[in-house]
Design a protein that fits this description.
Layout lengths: L2 H21 L5 H8 L3 H13 L3 E4 L4 E4 L1 H13 L1 H17 L2 E8 L2 E8 L14 E3 L4 H7 L4 H7 L17 H14 L2 E4 L6 E9 L5 E10 L8 H18 L7
Antiparallel strand pairs: 1-2, 3-4, 3-8, 4-5, 6-7, 7-8
Length: 258
């Protein structure tokens, strides 16, 4: 293949990645072809190439394609130079200093959350949310905070059937209807919670931060021993986490979710 023929393919591959990023969730190949005005055969070929390089992942049960871990790897290389993690670090540090509990920053990756930052508080319990760790989004406060701000169709695409619901300790939503109920509660309160669904005895509160389109790009969360923080104190703690997420939203040039 000559150089001139490679350039259009490269451009169209980039267009596919950008379209998946704008959509905010996995898409069928036919929808990609229609929205980008490309032949289906070309789109399938480009998706196969992108999948081989880890830039796209295929979800066979949903017959959809989403961004792959390779995109995150490129993104983290960029973030090491500046954006999200660096902008969030002082925000998270101030939050943890104020509340006295460990905190973290996470982003959504498929049906999981990926932890970008962790800030330990003196005497706080060890967490499983170390940098680079991935956990099922539907079980974590961070994941629920982000999922609650996604469109219903996007959540349905991520969790199409019971097989999509990973289990850690036998608790947490195991169906789309149960997850929607959890997310509705989070939207009603303005923050998401989890109690012992990631680690028995620990609870978390999470609030999402948004980009310039209002899309939930990350979540700020605090984790604590359930016995140490009674539920009557959770709204006050959530209010402080909300201020941190709003500060991060401003720092990344974002706007609150509509």
């Amino acid at each position: 293949m000559g150089e001139s023929s490679r350039v259009p393919a490269l451009r169209n591959g980039v267009r596919i990645l950008r379209q998946l990023a704008r959509h905010g969730g996995p898409m069928p190949a036919a929808a990609l072809a229609a929205e980008l005005d490309l032949p289906r055969s070309s789109v399938y070929h480009l998706l196969a190439e992108l999948e081989r390089d880890g830039l796209v992942m295929h979800l066979p049960e949903e017959r959809r394609y989403g961004l792959g871990i390779g995109v995150f790897e490129l993104g983290t290389a960029y973030s090491r130079q500046e954006p999200l993690a660096r902008l969030a670090r002082p925000v998270l540090a101030r939050l943890v200093d104020d509340v006295g509990h460990g905190g973290h920053l996470a982003v959504l990756h498929g049906r999981e959350v990926l932890y970008l930052l962790e800030e330990r508080a003196p005497g706080s319990p060890p967490l499983v949310t170390e940098v680079g760790v991935r956990l099922p989004a539907h079980l974590t406060a961070s994941g629920r905070a982000i999922l609650a701000d996604l469109a219903s169709a996007q959540v349905r695409a991520l969790f199409p059937d019971p097989s999509a619901f990973a289990d850690r300790h036998g608790v947490g939503p195991r169906s789309l209807s149960a997850l929607r109920s959890v997310l509705a509660d989070a939207r009603s309160r303005g923050y998401a919670t989890e109690q012992g669904e990631v680690t028995p005895g620990l609870a978390s509160i999470g609030v999402s931060a948004h980009d310039h389109t209002g899309y939930p790009v990350a979540a700020v969360a605090v984790t604590f021993r359930q016995e140490a923080v009674g539920q009557a104190r959770w709204p006050r703690l959530a209010a402080r986490i909300t201020r941190a997420s709003e500060e991060l939203t401003r720092r990344v040039g974002g706007v609150p979710a509509s």
